[in-house]
Amino acid sequence: MHHFTSINMQIFRKLNWFFLLAILSFSCLSASVLELPIKKINGKDYYFYKVQSNETIYSITHKLKISKEEIFKYNPSVADGLRTHETLYFPVSAYNATSNPNDFSGMEYIEHRIKKGETLYGICKKYNISKETLFAHNPDAQDGIKTGFTLKIPQQKTDILTKNVTVTNEDIENGPDIILSNDSITVNDTIIIAQNNGNIINIAIMLPFMLNEDNNPSKQALLYTEFYKGFLIALDEHKNDENPINIYAYDTADSLELVKEILKKQELEDVNIIIAPNNDEQLNVIGNFATEHNCTVLNIFNVKNTLHTTNANVLQSNIPQDLMYKKAICYFIDTYKNHSPIFLRNKERRSDKATFISELKAQLDSSNVSYSEIAFAGTLVDDDLSKLNDSTKYVFIPMSGSRSELASVMTAITQFRNTIGIHENINLFGFPEWTTFTGNTKERMLNLNTSIYSRFYNDANKYQSIEFIDNYHKWYNEEMIDAVPAQGTLGYDTGKYIFETIQKNNGLFDATTPYDGLQHGYNFIKTPDNAGYINNTLYIIKFNPDGSVIKTLLD
User: Fold this and answer.
1) Of 50, 75, 94, which residue constitutes the final position of a domain?
2) C-alpha triplet 343, 345, 453: angle, nearest 5°
């Protein structure tokens, strides 16, 4: 069993359960698994379970009382999706039927009656136990907790190192029951030091959590906090990795002077990765620090910042606009080479996609692809499309990304598609803003074979996304803020990228290791001038008439 470590007191509280899990593991063995039938395959005995209709990975973990990691370990194919009637296998040799880790006879408990507003995270933090340990002794809590519910809290007698830790407003907690102020408080906390030979990775998260806004935090501050919450869920999932991870979280309070003071802290002398705030001046200071200390700056929130073009230690996490346009246009040329492109120009509105449209037309010209433009007044009508050929394949490109502009052209295009009767001949190509459209607009995009390019997209119907949202709600007893992109998911993807990269590269952070996440992807490449790095990730989102939405990562 390996453990993460952190000097940050709150992170220790979150991670101490790695130690306790070694004592009170409930996921490795399960009476429910032991009751499954056995089949001999190639001379070895396996428990087997046939997936039922509408079952998910999450529901099976509850039913068999095992972890999803355990399911994937013995059945790696289901990581790509679970199929009805598929058979899951678990080697009997991995499940010692003579022992039962859920036999808690002789265990001493205290009872905790849940009060209004309490969360699983807060309760685990209060009693310094993991959620797995809590669930092992309170199985019903896996389905959520309610006010008035009574939990059994195990009292474990172990020899562990205890020392005093001082908590200040620089330490970021994760839950609605946050206790943070400008006054320092001293508490007793349990510290577990990882005993392994892996490289220690130090990560500093420097964001404007704005703890001085305790009574009325801004939405932006809440979004940064949500990012951090998602990041911790990713950290939670990498509890068994070889390398200890130190997390330092700081509230920059949107202050350049405070950023400078934070960078003077002793623990940052050996920092490996800094997740930086969305501020040009602060980024410059952090970038200079990174050059002096040879660490990596991850710029996630400042899309337009160009520090990566001059600083070799900076990673720009958002694909630059020029590269994004280039990749999207290459996709367009390749995908619609047998179609006739039709640009739709509204004479009464400004073309807010003029740069993209101009570059696309230039590439079509150089590729000897003919195209045409239809100018219309206010709303596209049937007569505007009357000269189009019924047997030609078309792809329509509005010259604005606004919802109103899309609405102004969809009715006529849909009517034209219905008239010719060959639905696959009519296609619509659009812009990142369209990924946010829902309801009737999305339905019509599905019917018109719509393709969109975007830096990110989260398919909320994928079981991985559903599972993450469920975990987020259980840990924090709240829903994520309705924002695009979802900051909790962004934090989760960022954490997964960092931790998986470290794991794949034997304890070293290699920025060029690709990662394709729930919502975001990371595939860093050197800038043309060989300075810093830029994210080369771009998605094509395809809306199909059958109701499916396909996200494709462009090479």
Assistant:
1) 94
2) 55
Instruction: Give the C-alpha separation, 539 to 386, whole Å.
Output: 34
Enter the DSSP assignment of 142. G
The whole domain housing 330 covers 322-454
Question: Is the Cβ–Cβ distance between 156 and 20 less than 8 Å?
Answer: yes
Residue 210 contacts by C-beta under 8 Å, 6 or more apart in sequence? 217, 218, 220, 221, 224, 251, 253, 254
Joined together, the tokens standing for residue 293 give 């200390």
Take residue 460 and report the two structure tokens written for it: 């909320």
Pick from 361, 360, 335, 300: nearest CA to 521: 300
In a domain, 417, yes or no: yes
Residues in the chain: 555
Residue 16 lies in a domain: no
Instruction: Record the tokens describing residue 405, joined without a space.
Output: 């502009």
Which residue, 79, 94, 109, sits at the end of a domain? 94
Is there a domain that residue 446 lies in? yes
- Complete edge-to-edge strand list for the sheet that includes strand 87-91: 38-41, 44-50, 87-91
Three-class secondary structure of residue 398 per DSSP: strand
CA distance linking residue 133 with residue 23, whole number of Å: 9
Residue with the two structure tokens 């860093």:
524
Q: What percent of the chain has pLDDT over 70?
A: 83
Q: What is the CATH number of the domain that holds 340?
A: 3.40.50.2300
Count of C-beta atoms within a 10 Å radius of residue 149: 14
Report the SS3 class of residue 478.
coil
CB atoms within 10 A of CB 358: 12
The number of distinct structural domains making up the chain is 2
Residues 6 or more apart in contact with residue 461 via CB below 8 angstroms? 549
Q: How far is the CA of 54 from the CAs of 57, 156, 390, 461, 471, in angstroms?
A: 10, 39, 42, 13, 19
Walking along the chain (555 residues) 10 residues at a time, the average pLDDT comes out as 34 32 28 74 80 79 80 79 82 64 61 81 75 78 80 57 26 28 24 44 93 82 94 86 84 94 92 96 97 97 95 96 96 96 93 95 96 96 94 96 93 94 93 92 94 94 89 88 94 96 90 95 92 96 94 92
- Provide the CATH number for the domain around residue 82: 3.10.350.10
The count of C-alpha atoms lying within 13 angstroms of the C-alpha of 117, restricted to the half-sphere facing its C-beta, is 3
Instruction: Give the pair of three-digit tokens for residue 339.
Output: 């179609």
**Which tokens go with 495?**
């954490």
Strand (E) positions, 77-209?
A: 87-91, 108-113, 150-155, 162-167, 185-190, 201-207
- Only one residue has tokens 């469920």, namely 470
Sign of the dihedral through C-alpha 372, 378, 382, 383:
negative
**pLDDT tens digit sequence for 52-99:** 877 788 778 877 878 887 888 888 777 767 877 788 888 888 775 444
Tell me how many degrees the CA angle 147-152-153 measures, rounded to the nearest 5.
110
Residue 13 belongs to what H/E stretch?
helix 9-15
Asked, for residue 441, whether it belongs to a domain, the answer is: yes
